[in-house]
Write a structure and sequence with these properties.
single chain, alpha+beta, 2 domains, four-stranded antiparallel sheet, three-stranded antiparallel sheet, binds 2-amino-4-trifluoromethylsulfanyl-butyric acid, binds cobalt (II) ion
Length: about 325
């Protein structure tokens, strides 16, 4: 390479780029170390930007056949539910229906998990959720709920929850939470899991494993006489004991004939959650755990929640009923 360090600042650069010398190779000629540092910084920034999740393109709205019974909100322009069930214990008939809906949701989630691999789009996972619900005679509960545009929530890496399935292509090393809810025979079944995409680094694998354990210790705290607060206390102790953060902004919830009702199930120790657990109560536990900080931010779409520090998060969810001695998990394929 030949250089012409005698060029004036505003001369065309010797390299033929057509740019002024001062905007092109002058720094590299005068101070190669500084130029190399600037280049490394640009590359690092590019890499970081590429590794964070960005919104993709949404596919057209998926249709639900006319014979599938719809929840009330699916008929409302804004997707608003017309009633909210109480958090009181359910009768045996409702619980039996929730057992069926819970199993259907778990089956659909399993189908999605089998499809997760590098190269698949989150929209393709949405199609599996959509067809999986419909083929079982159910309605995919997220579709149209308060304006949610798709049949599944897909939350990749630093996305905490409520991500839109879109043209995003899952990459080797990603983690993706898929949250399935089906409305079947008048009740909802709600469950989610975080899946590994190809070869995932140790730190993320550990996050996923500990988050699964957080759901387990939460379920283990469910028994008549305990309070809702005890669930969150157990989860928080386990997560923070591993150096992780518990996302505060999203909670588990009562569920049954409506998607979300009382009680609110905090995943941290909240003294306000004084309600005593009684047999027949049905609700979800769905801890969202962060490798870093628990604070969140929202994307402009009004739904997608990400960690403020962009650290990765994982989540697992089950729907359960309080029994005389503990909890029965309703969202199993078993
Ligand atoms: N399934 C989610 C939950 O666990 C709720 C999703 S609401 C939606 O509560 F609108 F995003 F679908
Ligand atoms: Co839920
Ligand atoms: Co859910």
């Amino acid at each position: 390479m030949t250089t012409a360090p005698t060029l004036a600042a505003n001369d065309p650069c010797w390299c033929g780029s057509g740019r002024r010398y001062k905007r092109c190779h002058r720094i590299a000629d005068v101070d190669p170390a500084r130029a190399a540092a600037a280049q490394a910084e640009r590359e690092a920034a590019e890499l970081a930007a590429a590794s964070f999740v960005r919104p993709g393109r949404l596919s057209p709205r998926r249709e639900v056949p006319a014979h599938i019974p719809r929840p009330d909100y699916a008929l409302d322009k804004h997707g608003r539910p017309s009633f909210r069930e109480s958090g009181r214990p359910k009768d045996a008939e409702t619980i039996a229906l929730m057992r069926v809906a819970g199993r259907a949701a778990a089956e659909v989630l399993q189908e999605i998990g089998r499809a997760v691999r590098p190269g698949i789009t989150t929209d393709e996972l949405d199609a599996i959720a959509h067809e999986g619900c419909i083929s079982r005679g159910g309605y995919p509960s997220p579709l149209g709920y308060n304006g949610f545009p798709k049949s599944l929530c897909t939350s990749v890496n630093e996305v905490i929850c409520h991500g839109f399935p879109d043209s995003t292509v899952l990459q080797d090393g990603d983690i993706v939470n898929c949250d399935v809810t089906i409305y079947l025979d008048g009740v909802h079944g709600d469950t989610n899991a975080t899946f590994l995409v190809g070869e995932v680094d140790d730190a993320s694998r550990r996050l996923v494993q500990v988050t699964r354990e957080c759901l387990d210790v939460g379920i283990a705290a469910v028994r008549p006489g305990n309070r809702v607060r005890d669930i969150g206390r157990a989860i928080q102790a386990h997560a923070e004991g591993q150096g992780y953060g518990v996302i505060r902004a999203f909670v588990g919830h009562g569920i049954g004939r409506t998607f979300h009702s009382d009680p609110q199930v905090f995943h941290y120790d909240n003294p306000a959650a004084r309600q005593v657990l009684e047999p027949g109560m049905t609700f979800t536990i769905e801890p969202m755990i962060s490798i870093g900080d628990w604070h969140h931010e929202m994307w402009d779409d009004g739904w997608t929640a990400v960690t403020a520090d962009r650290s990765r998060t994982a989540q697992f969810e089950h729907m359960l009923v309080v029994t005389d001695t503990g909890a029965e998990v309703l969202t199993t394929v078993g």
